[in-house]
């Protein structure tokens, strides 16, 4: 490649050249046939831009708020595991980038830097993503550490009762290092000779019995607002409204979990509508919530990545879909 990289595809190629194959494949791959991975890209390609002209764009402000925290654009850094496999500074460097760009960072439960290191590295607004372990005491401890260290929300990733079947990881016998957050609590260096070690680790450690009832448990161990990540259907979006979480993240986990799940962007509208109806169905209070949003916030805040709070989703649909508003 001649000169500096100018787009993400070129950065990806540099990463492919620089990283050990096992790690590149881990970052790059989707589950099974990687059908959803291709669809994630194709579905975005199918969305075209409808340009309007002769509009004053000399000063552009894309800032909005997620859970009340200001962000320079409706973009959040998604929680992704083990940044030190790619760079020695790991998640601390990512947090500094979030701070410099004035966007919110989601820190993965499976980070290679500790949450304390990330918290003390800069002033980025941070949300803490969790997996629920069979050892709930460990998960509770992690959530409490996050709360003590100034994280502003908990993101419960709900699409991973087991890790997706990632064929490259199976072939490479992908192994994780010992993650410092869990030192003295649990070993993450799971090694056997039979396929993906991280898949085996997740199967042994993640609580596959987790269900909607457990949101009450999560609420009981933290005062932080809770976001549920991995919603792909309107039914689940409505359940999320019913259990009273602060937001949902519409996501197929970068196509790394269930192959042949829909592309995230293709279900965002259906889910937005469901949330509006779900809130309305909560009765007068829900309807009032939607109307307040309409009065106060007329800007479109739905994020393109599919990451929205319930407020954001509702606002964007109230603004763009008059029919929904009238029917309420
Ligand atoms: C290398 C890699 C690691 C990831 N690790 C996590 C993780 O630890 N926790 C999590 O909730 N999601 C994880 N994800 C998923 C991302 O948070 C995010 O959902 C995905 O990259 C973007 O797809 P989406 O728009 O469908 O959400 C990971 C994704 C990648 C590519
Ligand atoms: C170290 C064990 C598993 C990490 C899983 C992280 C993740 O969510 C991913 O998509 O990969």
From TrEMBL:
Q: Which keywords label this protein?
A: Flavoprotein, FMN, Oxidoreductase, Peroxisome
Q: Where is the active site?
A: 253
UniProt-annotated binding residues for FMN: 79-81, 108, 129, 157, 229, 251, 272-273
Q: Which GO terms describe its cellular component?
A: peroxisome
What InterPro entries would the database entry show? Aldolase_TIM, Alpha-hydoxy_acid_DH_FMN, FMN-dep_DH, FMN_HAD, FMN_hydac_DH_AS
Domain FMN hydroxy acid dehydrogenase: residue ranges: 1-278
According to the UniProt entry, its GO molecular function terms are: (S)-2-hydroxy-acid oxidase activity; FMN binding
Q: Which cofactor does it need?
A: FMN
Summarize where glyoxylate binds, as residue positions.
26, 131, 166, 253, 256
Q: Which reaction does it catalyse?
A: 2-hydroxyhexanoate + O2 = 2-oxohexanoate + H2O2; a (2S)-2-hydroxycarboxylate + O2 = a 2-oxocarboxylate + H2O2; 2-hydroxyoctanoate + O2 = 2-oxooctanoate + H2O2
Cell location: Peroxisome
Gene Ontology BP, a term? defense response to bacterium
Give the Enzyme Commission number. Answer: 1.1.3.15
Asked if Oxidoreductase is a keyword of the record, the answer is: yes
Please give the chief subcellular localization of this protein.
Answer: other
Family the UniProt entry places it in: Belongs to the FMN-dependent alpha-hydroxy acid dehydrogenase family.
**Protein name, as recorded:** (S)-2-hydroxy-acid oxidase
Say which species the protein is native to. Nicotiana attenuata
**GN (gene name):** GLO4_0
């Amino acid at each position: 490649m001649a000169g500096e990289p100018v787009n993400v595809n070129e950065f990806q190629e540099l990463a492919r050249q620089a990283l050990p194959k096992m790690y590149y494949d881990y970052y790059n791959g989707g589950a099974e046939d990687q059908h959803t991975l291709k669809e994630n890209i194709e579905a975005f390609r199918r969305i075209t831009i409808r340009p309007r002209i002769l509009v004053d764009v000399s000063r552009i402000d894309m800032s909005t708020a997620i859970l009340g925290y200001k962000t320079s654009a409706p973009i959040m850094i998604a929680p992704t595991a083990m940044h030190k496999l790619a760079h020695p500074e790991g998640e601390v460097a990512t947090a500094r980038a979030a701070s410099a760009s004035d966007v919110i960072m989601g820190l993965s439960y499976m980070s290679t830097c500790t949450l304390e290191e990330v918290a003390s590295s800069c002033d980025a607004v941070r949300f803490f993503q969790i997996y629920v372990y069979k050892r709930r005491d460990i998960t509770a401890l992690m959530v409490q550490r996050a709360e003590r260290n100034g994280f502003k929300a908990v993101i419960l990733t709900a699409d991973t009762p087991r890790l997706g079947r990632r064929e490259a990881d199976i072939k490479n016998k992908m192994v994780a290092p010992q993650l410092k957050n869990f030192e003295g609590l649990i070993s993450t260096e799971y090694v056997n000779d039979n396929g993906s070690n991280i898949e085996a680790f997740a199967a042994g450690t993640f609580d596959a019995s987790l269900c909607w009832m457990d949101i009450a448990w999560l609420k009981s161990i933290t005062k932080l607002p809770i976001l549920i990540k991995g919603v792909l259907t309107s039914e689940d979006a409505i359940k999320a409204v019913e259990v009273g979480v602060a937001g949902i993240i519409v996501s197929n986990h970068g196509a790394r979990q269930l192959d042949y799940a829909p592309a995230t962007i293709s279900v965002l509208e259906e889910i937005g509508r469901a949330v509006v109806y779900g809130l309305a169905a909560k009765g007068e209070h829900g309807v009032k919530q939607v109307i307040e949003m309409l009065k106060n916030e007329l800007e479109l805040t739905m994020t393109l990545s599919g990451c929205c709070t319930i407020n954001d989703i509702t606002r964007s649909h109230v603004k763009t879909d008059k029919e929904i508003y009238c029917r309420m």
